[in-house]
Amino acid sequence: MSQSPETQLAAFRASIDNLDAILLHTLAxxxxxxxxxxxxxxxxxxxxxxxxxxxxxxxxxxxLAKDSALDPExxxxxxxxxxxxxxxxxxxxxxxx
Amino acid sequence: MSQSPETQLAAFRASIDNLDAILLHTLAxxxxxxxxxxxxxxxxxxxxxxxxxxxxxxxxxxxLAKDSALDPExxxxxxxxxxxxxxxxxxxxxxxx
Lengths: 97, 97
Description:
The structure is a homodimer. In chain A, helix 1 packs across helix 3 (72-96). In chain A, 84% of the residues lie in helices and 0% in strands. By secondary structure, the first copy, chain A, is an all-alpha fold. The first copy, chain A, has a single domain, classed as Chorismate Mutase Domain, subunit A, CATH 1.20.59. The termini of chain A are far apart. The mean pLDDT of chain A is 90.
């Protein structure tokens, strides 16, 4: 490899920046959907939490993580991180009503 | 809208599952790149942390978050969450050497 380490590092960082843009835009889309779920549940008096759905999501994400050589424990941590933000949004929707 | 709330909820959840698959696979790709960065830095004795790079990343993610109607504070929390996992990976690379 004739590239200097600095050039290689810059190329890796450009990939990280592209992937971060995908992640942020995908998260923005995901929060749009969970906000629609929050409004639907509020409108029809559906239960806010659904433990069976959450268990299925965790199992599914762990299987996807395994396929992608990601730590399945990380997949669960990641879902918990996102769900905490979703709950914050739902509380905001409720407070705004 | 003639769809029942249950049908609407199922459609929203199918979108969330698709978006989660994008997120997990993109994260898997991102960790592949940060692991390559970890190996490069170890090989060439480059400094593991780069505060100026991190500050640029946070500013960039906050601008992307603003464009996507995401909370810029969430963008920073998200980067911190990912970076904590990257540090765990780098420590593992170091311990394995």
